[in-house]
Specification:
Blueprint (H helix, E strand, L loop, with lengths): L1 H24 L13 H7 L21 H10 L8 H4 L8 E5 L1 E3 L7 E3 H13 L2 E3 L2 H5 L10 E8 L8 E4 L2 E4 L4 H11 L8 E4 L11 H10 L3 E4 L12 H18 L7 E3 L10 H5 E4 L2 E4 L2 E3 L22 E2 L10 H10 L13 E4 L16 E4 L1
Parallel strand pairs: 1-5, 1-14, 2-3, 4-5, 5-8, 8-9, 10-13, 15-16
Antiparallel strand pairs: 6-7, 11-12
The structure holds zinc ion.
Zinc ion binds next to loops.
């Protein structure tokens, strides 16, 4: 029985390998339509929110031939099912929205606020239109892993406001405030696990002030949820007006605090307070030193207003990454709802995944947009 099962699984691997190599050899050949929806696989594979990256590919070792080796090899060579390019229209050089949220409340005082109800609407609409959350780290490292046909989206939260996240006591237990961005995300994630639960919180000297819980505990809780913490400077300093030594001080102070709290945690992205910088001192925002603290940012985030090219695109600029403000101005301003409409109108400009994170797949006509330096081990597929 075991041998029969083994034979069957080997046959499956062979068939998959054959289909895969067929799609490699011919750009114009259209692989057969996938008989199963892809979402399920993405849910099973993307459920880990304890901060552990479970990448089965890493497990492949040199023990082929033994039973253990065989099983590992089968896992390691499992390829996503082929997709119909003409139907899915994968475009992994298309644009990605890095959304920027600030404050939440019952009402919206201005464009920097999002009401709880509207945030719930944002999540539902993004989900319905095929957007799926990925982390900032996975975006900048070109490790985008969403199901075929889906578009990655990144959430960022500036200023560490208590309306984004708070821990409260309920029936003697510590729970996430349901009327907070994280509370609303968690409730949505329970119903729609394939949407993902990712976001980076760009904090200052005292995140989530007003909470009864200490800052360290709050940040730890976010990290345990799989969220990230980014640098928004100590003092929310206007870096466009600060001199080089102040810039280095206010960035390094944040790094020092995070290192003090979580020595093993590494996440080096910075959101510019007020979106402000000056050309003459920009290099100090990228890297610098204050006292014994050295820092080097992998990404620097602007304020507003357009989607970002993805990491494989020659125009990808992680050191000045545009963000889209998550507000709704009925097309008057280029914000989230403006670009949701834009991508409905121009679907060919939107990043569409082929469902395989080991490949970079896009229409042949866009090949001049590829940045060959950034593709790493990914296999290029055009159609
Ligand atoms: Zn800010």
């Amino acid at each position: 029985m075991r041998n029969l099962m083994k034979l069957r699984s080997m046959l499956v691997v062979l068939v998959i390998l054959f289909l895969f190599s067929a799609c490699q050899q011919s750009n114009s050949a259209v692989p057969p339509v996938s008989p199963e929806p892809k979402d399920k696989a993405a849910v099973d594979g993307g459920d880990d929110h304890e901060g552990n990256n479970t990448d089965t590919d890493k497990d492949a070792d040199g023990t082929k031939g033994t039973d253990k080796g065989q099983e590992i090899e089968e896992e390691g060579t499992q390829q996503p099912e082929p997709i119909d390019f003409e139907k899915v229209k994968p475009n992994e050089l298309g644009e990605v929205m890095v959304l920027m949220y600030h404050y939440f409340g019952e009402t919206e005082k201005d464009v920097w606020w999002r009401s709880f109800d509207h945030f719930r609407k944002d999540l539902a609409l993004l989900y319905e239109r095929g957007y799926r959350l990925i982390s900032m780290d996975d975006f900048i490292s070109n490790n985008i892993d969403v199901a075929a046909g889906m578009t990655p989206i990144i959430f960022t939260f500036d200023d560490g406001h208590i309306s984004q996240f708070n821990l409260i006591e309920k029936d003697g237990e510590q729970v996430i405030e349901p009327n907070s961005a994280v509370g609303i995300m968690q409730a949505f994630y329970k119903e729609h696990p394939d949407f993902g639960m990712e976001g980076t919180f760009y904090t200052n000297e005292a995140a989530f002030a007003g909470s009864k819980v200490t800052e360290k505990e709050m940040l730890q809780y976010l990290l345990d949820l799989g969220m990230d913490i980014g640098n928004h400077t100590f003092g929310h300093t206007n870096l466009g007006r600060a001199d080089a030594s102040t810039i280095q001080k206010v960035i390094a102070q944040h790094v020092k605090k995070m290192k003090g709290y979580f020595p093993d945690y590494s996440h080096n992205t910075l959101a510019l307070p007020f979106g402000s910088y000056a050309g003459a001192t920009f290099d100090y925002i990228i890297q610098g030193q204050y006292q014994d603290i050295h820092y080097k940012n992998d990404a620097i985030l602007a304020v507003g207003s357009n989607p970002s090219p993805p990491p494989g695109h020659k125009n990808f600029k992680p050191l000045y990454m545009p963000r889209v403000r998550a507000s709704e101005s009925n097309g008057k301003e280029p914000d989230m709802y403006y670009y949701l409409d834009y991508f409905e109108k121009y679907p060919e400009r939107r990043y569409i995944s082929d469902g395989n994170k080991d490949t970079l797949c896009f229409p042949e006509k866009d090949k001049d947009n590829l940045d060959e330096q950034r593709i790493g081990d990914k296999q290029i597929i055009t159609y």
